[in-house]
Write a structure and sequence with these properties.
single chain; mainly alpha; 83% helix
Length: 109
């Protein structure tokens, strides 16, 4: 199911860049700020989520009969659940609200 989420995200990025390129143009300040927020905050967070969620966590949970995790696996779980998830909980709402404001208000900085 995680793979569908990432394919949808890539499709959303492609369609967004297509709309910006063919419809609005990149010369408007609000689109530049919107793309900056997406490229600096959302895309890196998504890359980290893909790395941990689809690669590192898949290795950890590949054998369900295991009862204990190694110290490296425990560290990976802690990093993902504490730091990656914590950062996402803070970054995503702020980024989304900022993008909504930019799209609706279309400020001309």
């Amino acid at each position: 199911m995680l793979i569908v989420e990432h394919i949808a995200f890539i499709t959303l990025l492609i369609s967004g860049f297509g709309m910006a390129f063919f419809w609005f143009g990149f010369h408007q300040a609000w689109i530049q700020w919107k793309l900056l927020i997406i490229l600096l905050f959302i895309v890196p967070l998504e890359i980290i989520d893909i790395w941990y969620g689809n690669i590192k966590m898949a290795r950890i949970f590949s054998s369900p009969e295991r009862k204990y995790y190694t110290s490296d696996e425990t560290q990976t779980l802690v990093v993902y659940h504490r730091y990656v998830t914590g950062a996402a909980i803070i970054i995503i709402p702020i980024a989304v609200l900022s993008i909504f404001w930019l799209v609706i208000a279309k400020p001309n900085f």
